[in-house]
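Q: Fold this one first, please.
A: Sequence and structure below.
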Amino acid sequence: MTYTDSAFLFCFFPVALVLYNILPKKCRGTVLLLCSYAFFFIISRKLIVYILASTFIIWLYSFIVKKIQRKRDTELEECKKEDSKNVKEEKKAIKEKYKKKQKIFLIISILINLGLLVVLKYSGFIGNNINSILESFKVTNRINVWHLALPIGISFYTLQTISYVTDVHKGVVKPDTNIGRLALYLAFFPQIMEGPICRYSETAEKLWNGERTTYEGLTYGLQRVIFGLGKKIIIADRLNILVNEIFSGYAGLDGGMIAAGMILYTLQLYMDFSGVMDMAIGMGEVFNVKLPENFKQPFFSKSISDFWTRWHITLGAWMRDYIYYPVSMSNISKKMTTKLRKKIGNYYGPLITSTVALFLVWLANGFWHGSAWSFIFYGMYHFTLIMLGRIFDPLSKKILNKLHIDAKKWWYKLFQIVRTIILVFIGELFFRAEGLKAGFTMFKIMISKFSFRSIANGELLNLGLDIKDLVVVLVFTIVILIVSILKEKGINIREKIAKRNIVLRWTIYLILIISVIVFGAYGVGYIPVDPMYANY
């Protein structure tokens, strides 16, 4: 069962909503938790034990930290009462002592949760690579390779466990010993499959408080659910057959077809992922919970750095706060930056030290997406582009000044957007390719054998979609492009529609609903497509 299944849309979700609202407020958090575990169990069965284990680990961490903090506060109170000249130093020593104790349990908690993810998701990849190395050295012994089943959402909820325990350690949030609230924070069913990746401070209290559904939350939320559903089943699912044909049969295609597949896959991925995010955020609104946005018109980005502040926003923010900042702000980095500033200046000095942090971010980003060299290459590809952008930024500004080019002109902004989109397309080619070798082969074909011949002669229509399908994709992509342009200009479309009279308002809603029903890719002979990021 996924968010686009009729069983979910017409049975599971409405039943969860009704139960949530008819029961007393004190029961609603429990209702959401039971529904979330039911959803998890339907998909992953006995693998639910892993999210239960992660929940227990962070609850135990909270319990231990709370106990440590009580002891610390007691000692600090006693220290105040003592008539000593060195009260400040003593209090500082007490705080440091207990902070070290907390840090031990922080590290243990992170290692256990991260260890579960590594064993389940990466043991096969690690084992295969070790065996390849042994083979290259002509060692006959081999290690046993495990291929373990993954529970849904493990890549997402593991990051939430790490953010929670880290924020508790830093004092951003207080340790929570309510195991139900912690469990719901990790397992909330609208976000468990693909995120967004939430912080404890963003959703935990609101989820557990169980505020009744409001009329505005219901209408706004369902609007967004239907809009996201349209992106997913009208565009993304319809393109799935064609994209699969191109990426599996690339050897017999020319460069034009490879380029078409690259572009259409990027479109498919965006419509699928952002569509599911719209559904998740919409369902959150229905339950009176504001989930963080995960997309902000990424195809209007003027650089790769800008793109990653607009695409999968919550993953980028997590990597920034829990990898980039801790590494770049560490004592070692600060000392190195001070030395390099003196030698190579205020711009390139800090840039060199931040490169280490950025490298780790993109290595982690690649690994997070999957256990294959193509994903690691994808991470390094974006790392390289961002670093090149930073290195040459002063030079590019000098060139623009020398040529008297105004970077604020519309045509230059358009150039930046087109350049960024092309670089994103290339990255997604390697991301989707069936292995790193296949990715390089496809890229080589696209460059060396580029031709519009196969597209012009209609060969594209022999890969599972007819002209009607492509027209549907084009029309609805244009609609979503218009919506994106309006949002980029700061126009809130839902508020605009809500202010219209009831006839016009419901005409728009019905058009949206009928479009999904009529043009959605489903029915006899259709193979349902799982949300694409659920596999990561």
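Q: Good. Now the second chain.
A: Here it is, same layout.
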Amino acid sequence: MTGRSIPVWDATVSGGISPLGDLPEWDLSDLYTGEDAPELKRDLDWLKEACRSFAADYEGKMADLDADRLLGCVLRNERINQVVGRIMSFAGLRYYQMTTDGGRAKFMSDCQEKVTDFTTPLVFFKLELNRLDDDHLHGLLQAQADLARYKPVFNRIRAMKPYQLSDELERFLHDLGVIGDAWERLFDETIAGLVFSVAGETHNIEGTLNLLTEQDRDLREAAAREMARVFGANIKTFARVHNTQAKEKEILDRWRGMPTPQTGRHLSNDVEPEVVEALRCAVVSSYPRLSHRYYELKRGWLGLDRMQVWDRNAPLPMEDTRVIGWDEAEKTVMSAYIAFDPRMGEIATPFFRKGWIDAAVKPGKSPGAFAHPTVTDVHPYVMLNYLGKPRDVMTLAHELGHGVHQVLAAKQGDLLASTPLTLAETASVFGEMLTFRRMLDIADTQEQRKVLLAGKVEDMINTVVRQIAFYDFECKLHDARRGGELTPDDINAIWMSVQGESLGPAFDFIEGYETSWACIPHFVHSPFYVYAYAFGDGLANALYSVYADGADGFEDRYFDMLRAGGSKHHKELLAPFDLDASDPKFWDKGLSMISGLIDQLEAMEAWSVSQRRGVVAWARVI
């Protein structure tokens, strides 16, 4: 019952420190003006009473409700979710701004405990809803059109029916949830508090990751080795967090009778296991023609006999290393959005003007980036760690896409606006593609186009190949944990079992790289989240191919899809575009787009080689 308080995290981004202009910060006053805001106390008091009265009015009585009274019950539940979401969004966003601040951590923990205590009486709602006979519920939906709107919500709740425990156990697990949150906080605070010393300067995790994208190879190596040292020094803590979280999940899954560790995620994503497996198999089988082929090209561009892990995200030798200021980044992304449809620009503008983005790298701030939808009567907030790299511009485009999606979906209301993770990446990846194509169109030289194409391919590999490798790591980790406690060496070995396969034969791996799993927040916050990136990339690429083919009315259909939020299944959302994610060939369509970009890079390289040979031959003649 914590509403929509979990942010949309992104694992594919990096960070550092540069003079970037006037970077925006959040104005959280649209939620509450502060910890002591009278509106916050009012909402907490209201929530306590609303939950008590809800239980008094409906517990043990849902089977006897007619359609109108069931609608009233659902609307009251939705309002409770909205207030919970507002409280926890405010507490969470303040915490993510500075996870090392004890006061903010305590405030969030206190809010979570109060919300958990207040909402425990509401556990019956889903349990009793699941006990309704299918024919009875169907009749109620037919009798009341406003109630029928919530059928997708009922479907998702009732998907858990086979795995439902007794009322008493469900209440116990609801109360116990705050303990799991404590392990997540330990992870966040440990990561945010790490200090890395590179070339005589100290950095947080974002600043150190940023060094891995510098031109200076010695600096990249120093950063990679320092990360290995610091992760190694803290590996027991990270192993304890992962062991505990995985064991807790195993216990819950076992009691619920879930067949696999991934089942819960598939149910929450409203996606069939066979669709996810088709995606995974398609990506893994494409490793040789995607990541292996690209990194071999990059090895040649860098003039290396062997690639090291600190070369994976290295800029190309001809790449412009200038810092991209915030104003330029905003202009680049907004021009791409407006060129697609002016409505995109109208929706995106307030993010830059009204304090809806927090962009700067700051001590204690959470790493990475996310877009948090908060609640439907406020607006989303975007967090970045902006450092002026081309990848940071693409991250802005990505998170702004999430924000646009969340604004459009808000009209569905709090129970229907929340989009399954598999569909939540659609607008973000599509926004990246719009920005990339815009930048490619205005590139002045062949060399600039090559750099842009290479950067896009790397981003897509990070989004598809790397995230499926992450997914395989999680699958192996949770399977292994079912056999007993895992040592750090055990987890390291599982990590390395997927890295070589996904990155390919061009790479060597330094001692210490095996601990790199430690800094990925998704493994702790949202187990098995990561396949949603590959799902979203494939889906968005397929959509973009329809758009690029000049389909009539594409923009209107695209906006309708985003407005739907979580009110429709992926089959229904994709049908207007003649796309079907359950068709195995669907994934080949998206993967072929990546392969096609690599084809272009190989053609450019072949042309460059022939030109160089021609110059040498001409020089010999004269």
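Q: Anything worth noting on the second one?
A: The CA atoms of residues 86 and 231 lie 35 Å apart.
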